[in-house]
Fold:
Amino acid sequence: MCRPTHYAISYEINPWMSLARQAHPARARAQWQRLHDVLARALRLRIRLLPPSPGVPDLVFTANAGLVAGRTLIRSNFRYPQRQREQPLVERYFRKAGYRIVRLPARYDFEGEGDALWFGRTLVFGFRFRSDEPVHELLASHLGARVLPVELADRRFYHLDTCFCPLDERSALWYPRAFDRYGRRVIEHVVPNPIAVSQADALQFACNAIVLGRAVVAHAGLSPGLRRRLARRGFTVYPVDLSEFLKAGGAAKCLVLRLSPPP
Ligand code: ARG
Structure:
């Protein structure tokens, strides 16, 4: 995670961001701290902190730093120059921490775990708005895994982790209309029990949840109906108000990058 010390809405690179709707710094810090504490205290995760840095307000969204596999970081190549400035900071941090860094060819964009999510042993890869389709083959060869590319179709759900959320070996949350027809078929094929969320829940970033075993940490805006569906399947929802981060187009899952696989 990365503290929101320099977090702000300084540019507009997705439909959620508006220079006219600034983040409230104290509120953002309190919301981030609450998320941190739920993960660290209630769920007993060990959290490493990437040092915050001025001039890169979206650095808090560490899910986009890259994709971690063992002691290797497949580093992101951000689409927009405003976020490309994060790349050297991420790289320096991981290098110091002893990771091997894989850089993809500069002509391809890739926004890390924001667009690449494991479903069992399969990596689902979302492309179009932030990551480029050919990256799926590079990921497959670096990871030695099956990678399934799916095209994203709705600008508001520009990263895969805004519309798809693996829950366990059989189920995942998803917002079907964020995918094209082929992508929908791919997901229905790999996920035995997909749980479709309503547009209202999708717009509250229901799919941008952090899943740890049967715990689901998500923005507090989830509908009671979705909470009930998750509870019926044995999940405990930990709601955290992340409204200040929705202003940048992110919620719980975007604010963390997984460093080690689930136990
Ligand atoms: N403002 C950031 C951007 O547009 C938000 C990133 C959200 N991250 C995510 N993994 N969905 O790049």
Residues 25-42 form the longest helix (18 residues). The radius of gyration is 17 Å.
